Amino acid sequence: MKRRPILATLLAACVLAALLLSGCRGDDDDSSPLTPTTPDTAAAYTTRGWERFGAANFSDALADFNAAIQLDATYGEAHTGQGWTRLSLATSPVSMNTAVVSFDNAIDNEENGADVLAGRAAANLGVGGASLDNAVDDAQAALTADAAYVFSHRTSFNALDLHLIDAFAQAARANFSEALTAADLVLDSGIEQDDAGTWVVDGTTYDSFNGAVLAHLHKVSGQFSG
User: Fold this and answer.
1) 169-184 per-residue burial string, b: 16 or more CB within 10 A, e: under 16
2) Which of 61, 106, 115, 133 has its CA 20 to 30 A from that of 85?
């Protein structure tokens, strides 16, 4: 079989996060009407913000979450919505970090469920660098909180994405064995570190364990990221 050299570079973390969230851009059917009246409470703005988020109207959703926070800065769910919307709009590590700040504020205001941890995991992956450790911790914590996690405001983002965040963050830290363990929870690779004969992905044999793991991660992310 054809041998391929070790992949030269890891997938940029912010690109992966965008891929993971590509399913967050209006692929669910949401035919319910948006809240017709102008909100006058933080809760009402947050409700409309989630409706707009579900319709992939991210700019207006962000405006609603911002308005909710202006009315009540302690309303944790508004910070969660702001975080997910910033994450969906993010195009760089810097903008990913603004989502991290939102999720931090949500946690500071007693929003501690899987939605916050999952969103912050994706945002920390997008930031990259030293934040990769936090991406792993948050993804694993979200799965501990809810092993069958599904994001209620965009059901295409679920536990499989959390395993992928864990896997890519581990690979970016050069922890390839841990990355494979996480990715195999999404799709079993058959790759074994001590058996070069198993370093095969889609018929191509790789010249290292690390290269095979990276190829498997790209395959799995392409098939399952939501």
Assistant:
1) bbbbeebbebbbebbb
2) 133
Do you know the residue count of the chain? Answer: 226
pLDDT, position 4: 44
Task: Give the integer Cα–Cα distance in Å for 69 and 73.
Answer: 4
pTM (2 decimals)? Answer: 0.86
Q: What is the DSSP letter of 205?
A: E
User: Distance between CA 127 and CA 177 in Å, rounded?
Assistant: 23
Q: What is the mean pLDDT of residues 19-26?
A: 53
Sequence-distant (6+) residues with CB within 8 A of 55 are: 26, 30, 34
Per-residue pLDDT tens digits for 165-216:
999 999 999 999 999 999 999 999 999 999 999 999 999 999 999 999 999 9
Q: Which two tokens stand for residue 73?
A: 């800065």
Cβ atoms within 10 A of the Cβ of 224, count? 16
Q: Give yes or no for a contact between 164 and 225, defined as CB atoms under 8 angstroms apart.
A: yes
41/20 Cα distance (integer angstroms): 32
Q: What residue ranges define each of the domains in the chain, with the CATH number in brackets?
A: 6-224 (1.25.40.10)
| Cα-only R_g, the chain | 19
Rounded to an integer, what distance in angstroms lies between the CA atom of residue 124 and that of residue 138?
A: 9
More confident position, 2 or 210: 210
- Residues 63, 122: Cα–Cα separation, whole Å: 22
Q: How far apart are CA 23 and CA 193, in angstroms?
A: 32
